[in-house]
Design brief:
The protein is α/β, with parallel strands linked by helices. The protein is 31% helix and 12% strand. The protein binds manganese (II) ion.
């Protein structure tokens, strides 16, 4: 059974060519869709006249993050966005359990039930209401066989999107801030990257460095990821998901004002922390949230970063895997800290190290955190707590 050729309006010749090559690749021998003369007036047809748009339900439609529009931005010069989502399906510098190459797919799948136009009581708004043009830019087709090439591909892709003109919908707070920090003095889009193992941050920091110079990092993770390379490691072996921040510091990509949040790993030796400090990080441990509380955790991160341009990187293992046995932060705690960081001068963000999980729980949690990124990247300051039946005096401890 051959599908009826769909009438598709092809407005730009560049897009038409890209479309033609995809069509030949994926539908060999099937006749191309025809052009304008075949477009019918759907307004009079039974479906549209009665029910309107053919919208996607939570469990239907092609897979993009939260049903956002999807474009292969790397090849589509007409794509416009202020905040683009970009998948980096790379996991070949992983020391233990691989599989994070399926992260972008799993996070998009986990996002189907949520929409960026839907608000929450916690944010008091929705990412779509805040004005930035949001677009799912697809995935970087990363080599799974050559790590040096893969790192270069990720840097080239990130640089490409970072240099695209913005759509122009960002708020007054962010228009001047990303422009003020950019070496060329113009506003650049911000990219939310869906990993991928944590090494993807090295090519991202290399690309950011060309636009902004060195940046601070807020790093949510169970692990330091600043470990020095073992003796005898080859140049390529030195770059892993546990060492990439040390390499980034060697390359001058970091300011000396970064901070970890949620560290709970076992150290090779306790002087790992000294080395970590030399890479430019302070440490907030998992237990600090119990000893000092969420508000102090937020305050310390904000004090450390100040007005620096800052990149946020979140390893999903900062969240307790099912609350046992590893005693990490709950998703709710991470979400509260993210809300408290709104208004910092973010130049980009990622979520990494999402692997296979039972019943998709990690993908759903990661998608929920990405929704928070999209609001956090746009607001000038943290939202006030939901008040409901409570009064200000109820907030005092
Ligand atoms: Mn990590």
């Amino acid at each position: 059974m051959l599908a009826v050729a769909l009438p598709i309006l092809i407005a730009l010749s560049g897009r038409a060519n890209a479309h033609a090559s995809h069509h030949e690749e994926f539908y060999p021998g099937v006749q191309q869709p025809l052009a304008m003369m075949d477009v019918v007036d759907v307004a009079t047809e039974p479906w549209t006249s009665k029910y309107g748009l053919q919208y996607d339900l939570g469990y239907t439609g092609p897979l993009s993050f939260s049903h956002l529009p999807y474009a292969r931005c790397l090849e589509d010069g007409a794509a416009r966005f202020d905040i683009g989502l970009l998948g980096m399906p790379f996991d070949t510098t992983t020391s233990y359990r691989p599989g994070a190459r399926f992260g972008p797919y799993a996070i998009r799948s986990g996002s189907r039930r949520q929409r960026t136009a839907s608000g929450t009581l916690a944010w008091g708004t929705s990412p779509a209401d805040l004005g930035a043009g949001l677009l799912d830019c697809g995935d970087v087709p990363v080599s799974a066989y050559d790590n040096a090439k893969a790192l270069d591909q990720m840097e080239a892709a990130y640089s490409t999107l970072l240099s695209r003109p913005v759509q122009g919908g960002t708020t007054a707070a962010y228009k001047p801030s990303t422009a003020a920090f950019a070496l060329d003095g113009i506003e650049h889009p911000r990219i939310v990257t869906l990993g991928g193992d944590h090494t993807i941050v090295l090519p991202i920091l290399r690309a950011l460095n060309k636009v902004y110079g060195p940046v601070s990092v807020i790093h949510f993770d169970a692990h330091l990821d600043t470990w020095p390379s073992p003796p005898g490691a080859s140049e390529q072996e030195r770059i892993t998901h546990g060492s990439f921040f040390a390499i980034a510091a060697e390359e001058g990509l970091l300011t000396n004002t970064s901070i970890h949040a949620g560290i709970r790993c076992k150290m090779h030796a306790l002087d790992d922390i000294e080395h970590d400090g030399s890479v430019g990080f302070q440490v907030i441990s998992t237990d600090d949230i119990d000893d000092y509380g969420i508000r102090k955790v937020i305050k310390k991160i904000r004090e450390r970063i100040g007005k620096n341009p800052v990149y946020l990187s979140l390893d999903i293992d900062v969240v307790d895997p099912g609350l046992a046995p590893a005693r990490g932060w709950t998703t709710r705690e991470v979400k509260r800290i993210l809300r408290g960081l709104a208004g910092l001068n973010f130049v980009g963000a990622d979520i990494v190290e999402k692997r296979h999980s039972t019943a998709d729980i990690t993908g759903i949690a990661a998608a929920d955190l990405v929704y928070d990124f999209l609001a956090m990247l746009q607001l000038e300051s943290p939202p006030l707590p939901h008040q409901g039946p409570f009064s200000d005096s109820d907030l005092a401890h």
